[in-house]
Amino acid sequence: MDTILADLRNGLRFLWKAPGFTLVALAALALGIGANTAIFSVVNAVLLRPLPCPEPDRLVAVVRKYPQGNSSSTSIPKFVVWKQSQALERMAAYDFAGQGFSLSGGDTPEQVTGVRVSLDYFRVFGAAAELGRTFIEPEDRPGGPRVAVLSQGLWKRRFGGAPGIVGKPITLGGDPHTVVGV
Description:
single chain, two-stranded antiparallel ribbon
């Protein structure tokens, strides 16, 4: 025990006498610890932590192979044919809305992120509406009613968490939509 204390005192004395070396050593330690933390965070989020939905091992992504590589994009008619084949229990399509939607009405318009989704999107991921409902069959057809399911964050931030939002009209991208769920 005495030798450990003597070595510790000797090391601290050396570090005190060589501040340049001490700063370089501390910077190297800080960079190493920071890099390891960042890499582990990414690995944990992408590889180790399961998806936040029931039975994530049953989810598959349908992709098409091309000579140039794979693509997850497809046409609506092909999606309908694949869905009718009943090879999968449920199938959903989604399309990120580019820059999002302009949500107008209320005090000021706001650019919000959104995703256009098909009927079974919420069922595929095991998500249920906290308030109201998700989509029904007539709303999944061309020319069907324009409806929206709001995220909980947008509902609380923009609409103050008002439970009366279900059934109310909102304007997304210049088009009227009825809120059916949160």
